[in-house]
Amino acid sequence: MTNTEIINRIQQLKKEKNAVILAHYYTRPEVQDIADYLGDSLGLSQEAGKTDADIIVFCGVHFMAETAAIISPHKKVLIPAPSAGCSLAESITGYDLREWKKNNPAGIVVSYVNTTADVKAWTDICCTSANALKVVESLPKDRKLLFVPDKNLGAWICKVTGREMELWNGDCCVHARITTEMILEKSQQYPEADILIHPESLCSHDDRILNLPQAYLYSTAGMIKHALNSSKKQFIIATEIETIHKLQKDNPDKEFIPIDSRTICAQMKKVTLENVLEALEKEQYIVEVSEEIRQKAWIPIDNMLNIKLQ
Ligand code: SF4
Questions:
Q1: Per the domain annotation, does 7 fall within a domain?
Q2: I need a labelling partner for 306 at 20 to 30 A (CA). Which of 3, 127, 139, 227 fits?
Q3: What is the extent of the structural domain holding 144?
Q4: What is the pLDDT of residue 49?
């Protein structure tokens, strides 16, 4: 089948089955182009909660589809590439958190949304890269905090808020490649460009980066907003490379320079047009979260949305 034939069949099945396709900014361009909604992990989960479709085809990695299933328990959530994992989400288990809580009964666990349902079930409050500073600032000053699982995002939050936290030793294998030296070198090469940096990056908490006037730390969705609203014509993009597909589509007259051609998430690339079609045809692979875990995992997400625990 040609790509056009696959896309036509996907559109037809979507209508017949009342399905919606949600895709992450890091998926392949051709997958992004067939999505009904394109977003980052939180945006996609929120969309999953709003849609009145019966089937959600979630084009992303496993923990993201799980989050959608936690938020939308009455919908059938399908993941076209069930083996698509994440180095960050896999760096910690629910057992690890249970052990920490045993030793720190008054402590608060803050989990980045890039975690499994099992980890969320033992978390007090979730955060995303977009709301992390607000979430941490909302927490009582006299309580010990454990931030999981991204040590780079955690160190950036500590630096900006001045709040001390114990950090889990996990990282995103894609953003952990983005160093201060790469940023400084590219900024010399393109002195007029704004530099948009994801806070999961290795360099995010280095003073040399935080003091760079043209550097901005943003979630992927924040980068997209910045590029749209800026009068600048050149941007250095320090995140997963496929984000540039959306940036370029939104801003055809602007130039987007990847920080490095190797900032690629191989797991996200496991989602293809072929397996999206197969997912719709066979209604596979269904993302299952047990009701017990789902109910527990919903609490820290709800706490984040309401910034409770004050
Ligand atoms: S880019 Fe990093 S955090 Fe995102 S899915 Fe890939 S490995 Fe996980």
A1: yes
A2: 227
A3: 89-172+293-306
A4: 86
